[in-house]
Specification:
The complex is a heterodimer. By secondary structure, chain A is an alpha+beta fold. Chain A has 20 helices and 10 strands. In chain A, the strands form 2 sheets. In chain A, strands 2, 3, 4, 5, 6 and 7 form a 6-stranded antiparallel beta sheet that branches. The longest helix of chain A is centred in the middle third of the chain and has 33 residues. The N and C termini of chain A lie far apart (64 Å). In chain B, 67% of the residues lie in helices and 0% in strands. In chain B, helix 2 crosses helix 3. Chain B is elongated. The chains are: A alpha+beta, B mainly alpha. At the A-B interface, helix 14, helix 15, helix 16, helix 17 and strand 1 of A face helix 1, helix 2, helix 5, helix 6 and helix 7 of B.
Chain lengths: 659, 167
């Protein structure tokens, strides 16, 4: 069966290569039949890649340990969920998984555009298939997951215990769906450039895909944070680890892109810039895959080391050169005929937003690769850790939030400063008053500044929702909640975007609180002894050992209370996996909307007569996850398809903008 | 008003960051020592493991390092002195951020250079866009039509937009 799987990969490569040739030849020489056959080859490539991935999953389910990859990443004792997720837990499987998702994306692209966008589709498909062929070749030539051992081991090595967690089972697929998905808007951009259809057509296509992809990246990043929070036991959820950065960079580029295309849609400007951003979006996603998969940066995540580096660099260079070449060919064509009419307009606000996002991208990118540069140039492998990223990016994030507050109050085209100031006055004063109250309540320092900014942005958004509803209320006499819902429904793109902003604000509130006001204490307790952290008391009661098929678990029983109110029993534990002899802490978390009590069992002596605990009180961490949900909700509001009515959204009849 | 508040906020942010580092030491409460410990251990690495901060590392060595930091804090040393002590003993690798000297300084400077280049470029682009003479569309359309057999994209845009409005 492994042989058939391997054969499927080669057949899929053949289909992809045929699809590239047929699509390109067909469109250049104008043979519609050849294009149609190229399209069918895309379907075939998707089917074959799916078969290959399916065979690998089947081998995991059948526990065929003669297959090296199965033996290395699963064991008999593992539950079904982790046996499935073992598919993407190693190098070979991840690459196949990457290719599989891309092939499915290509299938969806073919399906939805079978009767439309005929001019750009052949080039789009050729781009998708080029990327697919590259990844499949890596699987076929370098990282073959179907490689057989010459003997049959009794049992497999099992999965790294760190990864045996529900969030880790779904975090990689979400992130991969995001990473891989960036190929689609990029392919549409390539198609538009190659077919010389550089108007709004590709922007419409790319926008939806970019939003979808951005959402998956958001969910993936959030799940990664949730996993780190629950599994790594250091009390936080984001550590600026190179691999975290790898997921954050395309997210930032995607954020810049979905903002910047609005300017092109509304004003016909920034055409070239949007191409560059979509290239960056895709390029950074490939870079992220490269970073995770090549093992260039040693980090928690780099479980794999392999000779993939040069291939990735070569591939990124090749595809980016083609892209830039096409862009330069169309440069004159793309120059916008429109004039920026005012320096305080919405257009400028979007440009500033792009500037700040790009600055963050550059800083994070530079910080991520700097250890490599330093190692190559001066032979010193230095660490670039959270203190670096925090110092550089926090002011930039602050600026980004300020812009998020100002931009909604600017107007398109001929905006004036006095009008902007008038619009901002009310939210500014309102948030100023609340900030003053916070100050009088004893909040000060950087947290006060952060909250002042957040409150200001919040006030602006509340104002936007309010003024929208007021118009509807006045016009129809409907009650307020109804007016609010109607306002959002009538302009879902705009208000959906605002809901995403609100989600980001909720996240920001949580991030600031959990970083600035975190409490932490470590103590070694005898049975019956109590330690206090903030409002919380934690009493060590007992320790018990449990034996599972694959691991021994040592559980500490602790009784927690807050201001004398009993919170019940919490059970931080340590797992010892027999296969690898690796200990793994399982944090006990008692969540609440205001703060999490987070207890780590650090160690114990004399069979549990004394035990060492690390206890954190993490304020408002739940807000970070809650904000993530609001972001997803906002995207759903903004991008949920509803057929024809979608067009009644923002598009104010502007005809061809000022000539 | 907007300009003033923006600059004020940024300046205040900088000032406070500076103040936080330079705060004088006194008789410290336990909570205060915990807080400072955390601030210091977050910015130092375990000298043996890679990419593990002193806050997280479970090794014996790191336990001892943490005890030492606590003693030094109680003895009244400040963050800079403690950091300098560990750098002298273990070298730059104990720092969780690039040192601000030598080649590693480039790590700090480049993002700032990047931001400045970005600001200048944006300024130039904005100026160019503000003073751009509106192009005449007729000759432009003619050249497009001459080079491409398909409809000029501008017309396609227009057509699409109008069609959408009819729906």
């Amino acid at each position: 069966m492994a042989d058939i799987g391997y054969l499927c990969i080669w057949l899929a490569i053949a289909s992809a290569v045929f699809a590239i040739a047929a699509n390109l030849l067909g469109v250049r020489r104008r043979y519609p039949e050849l294009v149609a056959s190229g399209e069918q080859a895309v379907v075939a490539a998707a089917g074959l890649t799916s078969l290959a991935a399916g065979f690998l999953v089947l081998l995991f389910l059948m526990q065929d340990y003669q297959v090296n990859y199965v033996a290395a990443h699963s064991s008999r004792a593992m539950p079904l969920l982790f046996r499935l997720s073992a598919l993407w837990s190693g190098q070979e499987g991840s690459l196949l998984f990457w290719a599989w998702i891309l092939s499915l994306y290509s299938l969806v692209v073919v399906y939805f555009n079978r009767n439309q966008h005929r001019a750009i589709m052949p080039y789009t498909l050729a781009t998708l298939m080029t990327v697919l062929a590259f990844f499949l070749s890596l699987v076929a030539l370098i990282e073959n997951p179907f490689k057989m051992l010459d003997f049959v081991p009794q049992d497999g090595n099992g999965l790294n215990p760190l990864l045996q967690h529900w969030a880790m089972a779904i975090h990689p697929p979400m992130l991969y769906i995001g990473f891989v998905g960036t190929t689609v808007p990029f392919a549409f951009a390539m198609g538009a450039l190659a077919a010389n259809r550089t108007g709004s057509e590709w922007v419409q296509l790319a926008r939806r895909w970019a939003l979808l992809v951005w959402t998956f990246l958001t969910i993936g990043i959030m799940l990664g944070g949730a996993w780190a929070y629950m599994e790594l036991g250091w009390g936080g959820y984001w550590g600026w680890d190179p691999v975290e950065n790898a997921s954050f960079l395309p997210w930032l580029a995607g954020t810049a892109f979905v903002h910047s295309i609005i300017v092109q849609e509304r004003r016909g400007m920034l055409k070239i810039w949007n191409f560059i951003l979509v290239g960056l979006f895709f390029g950074l996603a490939i870079f992220g895959t490269f970073l995770t998969r090549s093992g260039v940066v040693s980090s928690v995540h780099s479980f794999a080391q392999s000779p993939l580096g040069p291939y990735f660099v070569g591939f990124i260079t090749f595809i980016m050169l083609v892209f830039l070449g096409l862009l330069i060919m169309r440069w004159e064509e793309l120059r916008s005929p429109n004039k920026l009419e005012s320096p305080v307009s919405r257009e400028t606000a979007f440009l500033m937003n792009n500037l700040v996002l790009l600055a963050i991208i550059f800083a994070v990118f530079w910080g991520t690769i700097f250890p490599m540069i330093s190692e190559i140039v001066v032979g010193d492998k230095i660490t670039v850790g959270p203190p670096y990223f925090n110092q550089i990016t926090i002011p930039l994030f602050g600026a980004l939030l300020v812009l998020m507050g100002i931009a909604p109050m600017t107007s398109w085209g001929r905006a004036t400063l006095s009008k902007l100031v008038r619009n901002l006055a009310l939210p500014f004063i309102a948030s100023g008053v609340i900030t003053l109250v916070l100050f009088l309540l004893g909040l000060h320092g950087p947290a006060l500044i952060a909250y002042a900014i957040i409150l200001f942005v919040l006030a602006v958004h509340v104002d936007e929702f309010y003024s929208g509803s007021r118009v509807y209320h006045a016009a129809t006499g409907a009650n307020w909640p109804k007016s609010l819902v109607a306002t959002v429904r009538r302009n879902r793109r705009r208000y959906g975007g605002y809901i995403v902003h609100l989600g980001i604000l909720v996240i920001a509130i949580g991030v600031v609180a959990s970083n600035v006001f975190q409490l932490e204490r470590q103590a070694t307790l005898k049975k019956g002894e109590t330690m206090t952290v903030g409002d919380f008391s934690v009493q060590y009661q007992d320790m018990q050992g449990l034996a599972f098929p694959d691991r021994d678990v040592t559980v500490a029983l602790v009784r927690a209370s807050q201001n004398g109110r009993d919170l019940g029993l919490l059970m931080p534990s340590q797992d010892l996996y027999r296969a690898t002899n690796q200990p793994q802490t399982e944090v006990a978390i008692r969540r609440s909307p205001t703060e999490d009590l987070y207890i780590v069992l650090g160690g114990w002596e004399a069979k549990g007569d004394t035990a060492t605990f690390k206890v954190f009180v993490n304020p408002l961490v739940s807000w970070v996850w809650g904000g993530g949900l609001v972001v997803v909700l906002g995207i759903l509001v903004a991008a949920w398809p509803d057929g024809r009515r979608r067009t009644s959204t923002v598009r104010i009849p502007e005809a061809v903008p000022a000539k | 008003m907007r300009k003033v508040s923006l600059t004020a906020v940024l300046l205040l942010l900088l000032a406070l960051a500076g103040a936080a580092v330079a705060t004088a030491q006194g008789g410290l409460s336990n909570d205060e020592i915990d807080r400072r410990m955390r601030a210091i251990t977050d910015r130092l690495n375990c000298p043996l493991c890679q990419n593990t901060t002193l806050t997280e590392c479970p090794l014996q060595v790191c336990d001892e390092m943490r005890d030492l930091i606590r003693q030094k804090l109680i003895a009244g040393e400040n963050e800079d002195q403690i950091r300098a002590y560990f750098v002298e003993r273990y070298g730059d690798r104990v720092l969780n951020e690039p040192p601000k000297q030598g080649f590693a300084l480039l790590g700090w400077v480049m993002p700032l250079v990047g931001i400045m280049v970005g600001v200048v470029l944006l300024g130039l682009v904005l100026r160019a866009m503000l003073h751009r003479e509106p192009k005449q569309s007729a000759p432009r359309a003619a050249t497009v039509a001459a080079t491409s057999p398909e409809l000029p994209s501008e017309y396609v845009d227009r057509l699409e937009r109008d069609l959408r409005q009819m729906e």
